[in-house]
Predict the structure.
Amino acid sequence: MESGVVYAGVIIDQAHPSLDRVFHYIIPTELKGKVQIGIRVQVPFGVSNRMVEGYVVRLDTAADVPNDKIKAIDRVLDDYPVIPQSMIPLISWMKEEYHCLSIEAIRCMTPPGLRANIKKKTQRLVYLNDQGDVVEERINYIARKSSYMADVLRLLVQQDGIPLEEVRAVTGAPLSSIKNLEKRGWIRIEQQEVYRNPWNYEPDIGVQPKVLTAEQRLAIETLEAALTRGYGKFMLQGVTGSGKTEVYIQAAQKAVSLNKQVIVLVPEISLTPQTVERFKSHFGERVAILHSGLSLGERYDEWRRIRSQKVDVVVGARSAVFAPLERLGLIIVDEAHEDSYKSDMQPRYHAVGVAHKRCELEGAVLLLGSATPSLTDYYLAEKGTYKMIKMKYRVDHRPLPPVEIVDMRKEIELGNRSILSGSLYRALADVLQKGEQAILLLNRRGYAQFVSCRSCGFVVKCHNCDISLTYHAYDKTLKCHYCGANYPYPRVCPACGSKYIKHFGIGTQRAEEEIKKLFPQARVIRMDMDTTSTKGAHQRILRAFGEGRYDILLGTQMIAKGLDFPRVTLVGVIAADTSLHLPDYRSSEKTFQLITQVAGRAGRGPRGGRVIIQTYQPQHYAIQFAARHDYVGFYSREIEIRRQFLYPPFSHIIRILMMGEKEDDLIRLAVDTRDWLKQKVEGSPVLKQGLIDIGAYSAPLERINNRYRWQVLVRIRPDDIYKQAYHRLMDECLERLMGVKETTIVDFYPVSLL
Ligand SMILES: Nc1ncnc2c1ncn2[C@@H]1O[C@H](COP(=O)(O)OP(=O)(O)OP(=O)(O)O)[C@@H](O)[C@H]1O
Ligand SMILES: [Zn+2]
Ligand SMILES: [Zn+2]
């Protein structure tokens, strides 16, 4: 420690705005040398001098408290600083950028399990009692009586010991069928303690080094030069299947050989098992995997391994951007366009924004990778914020799959009421006959089965949320997807008493039933929220499909991400336009990304592939450009619309979301806040220059969990000077709102306005 330092600046571990500043404490002589920047301490606080925890963020030679008032640090809580010194400036930056408390930023950087005690967890698991041929015989025998029971056995043959809920969700089997199997003595159900292993698959050893494509080589050379220099921001725009993962791995390898460390961000660990697996098999023990599915204990263990610098590479979802590495050289963001990089809880940070700042502070290289960059990122790349690296070809010069657009209105005219057009039906039959595989996407959002009355048009909604309920076939109930409430199926219309009340639309469950009916011989596996609620379910489904144990993978948008299955020769999009109708300025962008990504799953192997897109809006440009794999075409069109209507990146939107139980009070608060803001803007030339518009609106999701939702949207010109001025204004605004009973949330980077 520098001589003369006797004071420590401490941030108290109490999340309250009035305590959000640095407090000075004396470092007692016996703690000299132990009190370091980033270390956790216990200090007396307040008039009662109760002991609280805090983090040392500064060491000073003078204090802002008179000497007779200043208190002393009581003790040091760790052997080493939990936050590396290089990350300390990130705390005040986050406070500014995301309007959060310093301690909220610090909590992102430290594991929640630092002091928590960890509970054991138990689950009911289903096991086969016997193995081998006898099970096959039983399957054949029981299939004639109950296809559910046969399905359960088939599932257990693939993997023994599956949580009961998952068996039910995957097979759709009622509990009685499972109990029947248990009574026959064929299976058993055991209550077991779950041992949570963060990554339970063997790395596949024996991956032979690849001969790089010319584009890959160029990309890596460019990145290597930047790594040697120690800075640079890059966007790798590579078409689906161009081999971006290989570029990530080799760039990471270069960084490691320069004695630097690497963070690799993926949208969600469970949905990108192949990417994670490739890093794992390349870096072995020197890689740490961080994600939210870890128990506190596991999380803490991984964090400690990272903190003690035992790893070179950290792979994880958005929170991994805070990995406490001391020799950070490279941050890679895979599928950088994904919304999951934005935190939807306090602090509302964006992992790409944090990555930018960390790279600047710590002299590291930033690499954003995607086949479909967000419009804003691509715009920034054109402006020079990122250096663009393009990969236009798939590896081995495999062609991008041809895409056929099917107009579903014509199908109905022709009398086809099935969910499959003639074209997609024939293509599926062909795939099955050849023993190949297919992926079917049903983007269920806004298209789920809702229940409505044919006489009066009444739609059954949740009492708490004012959102249409979704019909679930397996237990014949109606569920609210926002608050989880369950309702019985109404026998008559609650509004008019008519008995012509029925479910409409189609969800993944019904799609699965229909496909099984059309192709009884097909082995279909479904992947959606219902079949993946248990730990490890994603990986099990993807692995089973990857190993060829199923013919068709049917799922929601969660199947669109980065999967690499060479045997998939057909991708079908059952309803491409469902996401076009969301009341959000990004709905075209989201639709284009989704279709392009899922189409990119086809034809990744030597057998080639094709894509069929079913839609009611075949002429929509998002669908047309996606069908041509034309990112730049889509970008050029969409960016002009954004420019014309002053949507981001030509504006910056600040969202103040307000929620409360009394609608009248809430409206009053929203309108009052808007008027107050307007008045403030009038009084300041900078604010006035920067403003595009302010409005108070009811949110598209009007009510969730019995709470009404309103929002004040402030649209400003995107220059830094205005952003800063509006940050100050929001500070004032929040202070003003501090006492109100409604919940208010200010979001500086809203990714959704729903
Ligand atoms: N140089 C190479 N030679 C041969 N095969 C390669 C090479 N590079 C990558 N591959 C293989 O090509 C396939 C596609 O690569 P990868 O999954 O990295 O593509 P991607 O660009 O990430 O695509 P997406 O954006 O669709 O996820 C993988 O099976 C990968 O192992
Ligand atoms: Zn609800
Ligand atoms: Zn009715």
In short: Residues 194-206 have pLDDT under 50 and may be disordered. The chain has five domains: 7-114, 122-193, 214-396, 403-447+506-643, 652-747.
